[in-house]
Write a structure and sequence with these properties.
It is a single chain. By secondary structure, this protein is α/β, with parallel strands linked by helices. It contains 9 helices and 9 strands. The chain has helices at about 40-50, 70-85, 105-110, 135-145, 165-175, 185, 190-205, 215-225, 240-245; strands at about 20, 55-60, 60, 95, 100, 125, 150-155, 180, 210. The strands form 2 sheets. Strands 3-5-6-7-8-9 form a 6-stranded parallel beta sheet. It has a 3-stranded parallel beta sheet with strand order 1-2-4, with helices on one face. α1 crosses α2 (about 70-85). The longest helix is centred in the first third of the chain and has 17 residues, at about 70-85. The structure holds fe (ii) ion (FE2). Fe (ii) ion binds next to loops.
Length: about 240
């Protein structure tokens, strides 16, 4: 589980090198609601490097109603980004997986044992709807595990329908799901309730990974300004599991 301490000194430069690897972002241009140009991708890779990250596994949306991304599309985009990042002289390593929305398309990919793009450790990053709970979330998570993947639930703190019974998060973890919280949730970017839930998950030691979920430079700028806004200084982050992969 993720360790956290209130030991960061005020006004110290933001340094997230303890996290090391970011495993949630949208920096492949033009294929989802993330960056639009490869120049933006390079700028974001540079900012990630400045923040202390040595590697990012970027995760374009696969959401069949909106973003019909396949491994071929994602990996072709990755090659372009890598080429430009290398040309810019950056050292950050960039790989790609995907953020799979649990929809009928996802269920059929799983049933047909199609290729998934995974995070290190054969981890499958999945997201749920924001407003209405799925009827079969637990069954789907079991199916993912049954197919040999480790499910990682993206930004659980943003699924407001779980707030009435937060014990569901413990149940998710007990049943083998890892939770990935967005760093900006701790800064109040998504609102007070999301912030409170992210802190609750931290206090209860339920978080396996912190991610940027960066879609644009603004997100990284906000993380970078964390100290000035006096929220990031409360935390010392370490993605232990990822570091050990
Ligand atoms: Fe995302």
């Amino acid at each position: 589980m993720l360790n956290w301490l209130f030991d960061k000194k005020k006004n110290e430069k933001v340094n997230l090198s303890h996290i090391g690897i970011d495993l949630h972002s949208h920096i492949i241009p033009g294929i989802d609601d993330g960056v639009e140009t490869v120049q933006e991708s390079v700028m974001m890779a540079q900012k990630m490097q400045e923040l202390g990250y040595s590697r990012m596994v970027t995760t374009p949306h696969v959401m069949w109603d909106c973003y019909k991304n396949t491994p071929e599309i994602i990996l072709a985009g990755l090659e372009d980004v890598r080429h430009e990042v290398k040309k810019a002289g950056l050292t950050i390593q960039i790989d790609a997986a995907a953020e799979y929305f649990i929809d009928e398309h996802f269920i059929s990919l799983l049933a047909n044992e199609e290729q998934f793009l995974t995070l290190p450790g054969n981890r499958l990053l999945v997201e749920l709807p924001y407003s209405t709970p799925l009827m079969n979330t637990f069954e789907t998570l079991f199916s993912i595990i049954g197919k040999g993947y480790q499910p990682v639930l993206a930004h659980p703190e943003r699924y407001t329908y779980y707030y009435s019974d937060p014990s569901i998060y413990k149940k998710l973890v007990d049943q083998g799901c890892e939770l990935q919280v967005n760093i900006l949730s701790l800064g109040g970017y998504y609102g007070e309730n999301v912030n409170k839930m992210a802190e609750w998950l931290l206090r209860n030691n339920l978080i396996s990974f912190l991610g940027t979920d960066a879609h644009r430079m603004q997100h990284l700028d906000l993380i970078n300004k964390g100290d000035k806004n006096n929220w990031l200084s409360k935390y010392h982050f370490q993605n232990e599991k990822i570091i050990n992969i």
